[in-house]
Each structure stands twice: as structure tokens, then as C-alpha cells.
Amino acid sequence: MLRPVALLSIAFAAACSGGQIRESSPEPCSEQWQQTVEARLHTGDAHGHGPDVGSAEWRSVVEFKLGIRGKPEVPARDSLEWCAFIDTRIRELEDAQ
Does residue 24 register a pLDDT over 70? Predict the structure, then answer.
């Protein structure tokens, strides 16, 4: 039998994730995170050509794919805040689907 504390923890996790418990996500800006973003947004073309994942050009394409390039609320591309901002935008897209 689950203890009340365990039940509360499960309920809290489900409430915070919109009813689903999310898999653990890689740390924003990490190489694994960049690969996850790339897998979701596909910045290259159908022939495997595209910017190097993690580069300034790649970050620009990520912004373009999310429809946020040039918007004043987007943090500087070379900052940890940018990665957190992008991570939030991708999660919002996934939640909307």
C-alpha cells in the first residue's frame, strides 16, 4: 500500500505536468539537450545539410522554426537564459498538441 506522502508526491507530479509525468529532460544547453531540440525541430534539409548543432547559426534556425526570431523577449543566443527560453517554448508546443 502506498503511503499518503507517496500518493501526494505522485499527484503533485501529475498536476505539474498537465496530467502526465514527464520523462526527465536533459539540462538546457547541454549537448544532450541540443540533440533533443534538433530531433524535435529538424534544422537541416532532407539531404542532411544544415547548421552544426549548438552553433550560433543553429540557434538562429531554432528561433526561426519556433517563430520567435527577432522578437524582443528572446534572450541572447549565447546565454543559458536562451536555452531555458527555448526549452519552455518547445514544451508549450508539445503541450498544445
Answer: yes
Q: What does the DSSP assignment read for 41-94? A: H--S-TTS--PPTTSHHHHHHHHHHHT-TT-TTSPPTTSHHHHHHHHHHHHHHH
> 92 vs 13, 30, 96, CA distance in Å?
17, 20, 6
Query: What's residue 44's pLDDT?
Result: 92
Contact 67, 86 (CB under 8 A): no
CA atoms within 13 A on the CB side of 37: 31
Q: Which residue has the cell 536533459?
A: 26
The C-alpha atoms of residue 82 and residue 75 are separated, in whole angstroms, by 5
